[in-house]
Design goal:
- The complex is a heterodimer of chains A (114) and B (111).
- Helix content of chain A is 0%, strand content 56%.
- Chain A is mostly beta strands.
- The radius of gyration of chain A is 14 Å and the shape is globular.
- In chain A, 36% of the residues are buried.
- Chain B is an all-beta fold and 111 residues long.
- Helix content of chain B is 0%, strand content 45%.
- Chain B is built from no helices and nine strands.
- Chain B is globular and about 40 Å long.
- Classes of the chains: A mainly beta (114), B mainly beta (111).
Chain lengths: 114, 111
């Protein structure tokens, strides 16, 4: 069966420090991968999605970047964190081929920038 | 992708059916309606989806109106563990799951 791993679960980082969040998917090949952010009490905002290795699309301008070095690995990064980067970050995947497929989410990383 | 409108919150008594409405009046003919829920501090969990026919699985039922402009998610016997935020999403035909999740409906199941 397919599983998605996301770590760490919680993270407290000072302003100006770098960030690296990792997401890996098991049990499937060639997935579409997604990074979402959720501010406290708000809906999910799509940040990045990827349809293949090295292929990243950004949905909103921001202080973050994403990379996909391997088929089932998706990384969210920042060189210098801002207070506004605080939030709940979620990784998700879908099957690439079909449009009629649900997204599967990781358990999220709660980032607090102090 | 079409936008959706949901009530911000709802209450339901434990053991009773919870009926969560969603309006999607601008839905296109090839767009599906998806429902997810998010329990506090966890990732969203897929519940059910449909195109135009009513759907049922082990978790819930999805009723889509004939004009497809609205739908209702039904949890037949709500339990305290069903307390969560429920998201109604309309998914476009291309581009994977580039879906915008709105604020959803916060369902409180009370004993």
């Amino acid at each position: 069966s397919q599983t998605i791993h996301q770590w760490p679960a919680t993270l407290v980082q000072p302003v100006g420090s770098p960030l690296s969040l990792e997401c890996t998917v098991e049990g499937t090949s060639n997935p579409n991968l997604y990074w979402y952010r959720q501010a406290a009490g708000r809906g999910l905002q799509l940040l990045f999605y990827s349809v293949g290795i090295g292929q990243i699309s950004s949905e909103v301008p921001q202080n973050l970047s994403a990379s996909r070095p391997q088929d089932r690995q998706f990384i969210l990064s920042s060189k210098k964190l801002l207070l506004s980067d605080s939030g709940f970050y979620l990784c998700a995947w879908t099957l690439r081929a079909s449009q009629n497929t649900e997204a599967f989410f990781g358990q999220g990383t709660r980032l607090t920038v102090v | 992708d079409a936008k959706t409108t949901q009530p911000p919150s709802m209450d339901c008594a434990e053991g009773r059916a919870a009926n969560l409405p969603c309006n999607h009046s601008t839905i296109s003919g090839n767009e599906y309606v998806y429902w997810y829920r998010q329990i506090h501090s966890q990732g969203p969990q897929y519940i059910i989806h449909g195109l135009k026919n009513n759907e049922t699985n082990e978790m819930a039922s999805l009723i889509i109106t004939e004009d497809r402009k609205s739908s209702t998610l039904i949890l037949p016997h709500a339990t305290l563990r069903d307390t969560a935020v429920y998201y109604c999403i309309v998914r476009g035909p291309t581009g994977g799951f580039k879906t915008i999740f709105g604020a959803g409906t916060r369902l409180f199941v009370k004993a």
